[in-house]
Amino acid sequence: MKIGLFGGTFDPIHWGHLRSAEEVREAFHLDRVLFIPASVPPHKQRQDATAALDRLKMVRLAIAKNPGFAVSDVEILRPGKSYSLDTLRDFARQRRNDSLYFILGVDAFREIGSWKDFQEIFPLCHMIVTSRPGCGDLLKLGDIPVAARKLFCYDPQKKAYRHTSGTRLHFLKLTDIAISASEIRARVKAGKSIRYLVPSGVEAYIKRRGLYRSARRGE
């Protein structure tokens, strides 16, 4: 099987996440896209981050009607910070007969040089770097972190960059949907509608659980 691995905080998951995953699934003919909510994101240290189980439940609600989507709680069950390398190693061991595709936005890829042992990620999976609204053009080989650049060469047949291990690095332009989780949290805190920014089930869950409201709201 061809499996896409789509990690993130998903705080909350929204239509931008879902549409991006669907376009990647279709473009690369993936059998399944696994959404992987992070427990403790290494690069995002918000003190008011929503509990991991709430974020996991919102993802489950959001993807329930798409048979091409699934969710993994591997990072939530694993103690400590949610390093992508650890997650990819887990999947590489468990799914030896599957082709793994790690999905990340161009903004995250630009920072990959600061990730834990990032050079060890490339042999574990193919990588799909997607466009993000407001993040400029997609990158090219010259923009790959210097420490990894020499490990890639362009494969014109696959229209991708090939790593020395045989895995490939792809770039994909997506439909620009300028929705941000921080905007959604701010709207909830201000008492504004988030209808059509998130699936209805996620909207109802946020209301029911009182997520993202100011601690002083209503006083």
Concise synopsis of the structure shown:
With 219 residues, the protein is α/β, with parallel strands linked by helices.
Offer a few descriptive terms.
about 220 residues, alpha/beta, Rossmann fold, disordered C terminus
CATH superfamily: HUPs
* Annotation, overall tally of beta strands: 8
State the secondary-structure class: alpha/beta
One letter per element, helices H and strands E, the order comes to EHEHEHHEHEHEEEHH
C-alpha geometry = globular
Low-confidence stretches: 215-219
Number of domains: 1
The helical percent reads 25-40%
Strand content: 15-25%
Query: How much is the average pLDDT?
Result: 89
Total of helices: 8
Cα end-to-end separation: 53 Å
- CATH topology name, in short, is Rossmann fold
Q: Tell me the radius of gyration.
A: 18 Å
Side by side, the strands of the main sheet go 3-2-1-4-5-8-7-6
- Provide the CATH top-level class: Alpha Beta
Please describe the biggest sheet, giving its number of strands, its sense, and whether it closes into a barrel. 8 strands, mixed
If you had to describe this structure to a student in words, what would you say it looks like?
The structure is a single chain. This protein has 219 residues and is α/β, with parallel strands linked by helices. It is built from 8 helices and 8 strands, in the order βαβαβααβαβαβββαα. It has a single domain, classed as 3-Layer(aba) Sandwich (Rossmann fold), CATH 3.40.50.620. The protein has helices at residues 15-27, 52-63, 74-77, 84-94, 106-110, 146-149, 181-189, 200-209, and strands at 2-8, 32-37, 69-71, 99-105, 126-130, 152-155, 160-163, 168-172. An 8-stranded mixed β-sheet has the order 3-2-1-4-5-8-7-6, with helices on both faces. Strand 4, helix 5 and strand 5 (126-130) form a beta-alpha-beta unit. It is globular, with a radius of gyration of 18 Å. The relative contact order is 0.17.
